[in-house]
Amino acid sequence: GSTIGILGGGQLGRMLAMAAAQLGYRSHIYAPEASGPATEVSAEWTKAGYDDADALARFAESVGVVTYEFENVPPAALDRLEALVPIRPGKRSLEISRVREREKTLVRDLGGRTAPFRAVGSLAQLRDAFAEIGAPSILKTSSLGYDGKGQVRLRDGSELEQAWEAVRGALCVLEGFVTFDAEFSVLLCRAESGETAVWDTPENVHTHGILDTSTTPARTLILDQAERAIALAHKIADELDHIGLLTCEFFATADGPVFNEMAPRVHNSGHWTIEGAVTSQFENHIRAVCGLPLGSTTRTGARVEMKNLIGEDANDWPEILRDPAAKLHLYGKHVRPGRKMGHVTRLF
Ligand code: ATP
Ligand code: MG
Ligand code: MG
């Protein structure tokens, strides 16, 4: 059919729906919240919960393919949908990338490097893992974390009990702290045929665990390791038989690229591609899930910078509009501290 089902109602879903509309597709959003950035630009939305079997069945019937903008779709909902309609990227991509230790284990099995890590399910296990990995390290919830939420940094063993309380007994990984020179991501789109498209690797700067800026081209120290990281991303995508966008975050270290995490979807570090590349991450994702050929990822500017507008930053929007190099994106959300309100891309 000519309607694409999107699970999730946030800004990623919004930008997917906008790209879909440009190609003549309608979008049907499935999101429990009554409204959101994605529902405002889509033809239809279902605001039922992911446990509502009837709503899921009606949603599946109304669309030709289902994709998603977040990786925490409950497995039972996926199973229900999968029986009725193709889901792209597939279930395996979600199963792996939903859980930190699974994605790190897969990457290691494929010959990639990760921080030292241990799965932790109790305070006793945290003590054991800390004895092995040592300080500094980071305790992260295995699932549901984003923008650095659900993470506790550990400098010494006296903080273990407090850290375990902070994550409220959720399943976690303890990760050794990686000394890095810079951070970057690989944005790869894979079609059903196995054809892939890769954009320039943006250099990403995070502030308080939240992405602040993504810049292309990245500095030489990143470009020198990008090829190895891209080769690993290809291996991951092939192994998962992934269809659509796959984003892999890396640390650039003195010993080469270290894999941090991945997302089976479009990603904040790829927002620059809307104006900064011939085909955006959103358009190529839609093309891939609809079985269309992928578009060119060639950069359209000598230098492209994306800056997130977090919380009150968004109040500066009239000023941004006066900058001839700036393209402003606002997601239509109410301001809250630490919330991603929009972004601005500058082409030079
Ligand atoms: P996202 O919004 O990207 O999904 P997240 O909550 O999943 O974020 P991570 O990507 O794991 O969090 O971590 C956020 C940031 O914290 C990283 O980009 C990096 O700057 C820092 N960080 C995370 N893990 C490590 C590590 N093992 N060593 C050093 N820095 C780290
Ligand atoms: Mg993450
Ligand atoms: Mg991250």
TrEMBL record:
Pathway in which the depicted protein is active: Purine metabolism; IMP biosynthesis via de novo pathway; 5-amino-1-(5-phospho-D-ribosyl)imidazole-4-carboxylate from 5-amino-1-(5-phospho-D-ribosyl)imidazole (N5-CAIR route): step 1/2
Keyword Ribonucleoprotein in record: no
Residues that coordinate or bind ATP: 100, 140, 145-151, 175-178, 183, 206, 260-261
ATP-grasp domain mapped to chain residues: 104-290
One of the record's GO cellular component terms: cytosol
Superkingdom of source: Bacteria
Secretion signal, residue range per the UniProt entry: none
Reaction catalysis annotation: 5-amino-1-(5-phospho-beta-D-ribosyl)imidazole + hydrogencarbonate + ATP = 5-carboxyamino-1-(5-phospho-D-ribosyl)imidazole + ADP + phosphate + 2 H(+)
UniProt GO molecular function: 5-(carboxyamino)imidazole ribonucleotide synthase activity; ATP binding; metal ion binding; phosphoribosylaminoimidazole carboxylase activity
EC id: 6.3.4.18
GO biological process: 'de novo' IMP biosynthetic process
InterPro entries: ATP-grasp, ATP-grasp_carboxylate-amine, ATP_grasp_subdomain_1, PreATP-grasp_dom_sf, PurK, PurK_C, PurT/PurK_preATP-grasp, Rudment_hybrid_motif
Keyword list, A-Z: ATP-binding, Ligase, Nucleotide-binding, Purine biosynthesis
Function: Catalyzes the ATP-dependent conversion of 5-aminoimidazole ribonucleotide (AIR) and HCO(3)(-) to N5-carboxyaminoimidazole ribonucleotide (N5-CAIR).
Complexes and interactors: Homodimer.
The family this protein is said to belong to: Belongs to the PurK/PurT family.
Cited NCBIfam families: PRK06019.1-2 (NF004676), PRK06019.1-5 (NF004679), purK (TIGR01161)
Protein name (database record): N5-carboxyaminoimidazole ribonucleotide synthase
Gene, per the UniProt record: purK
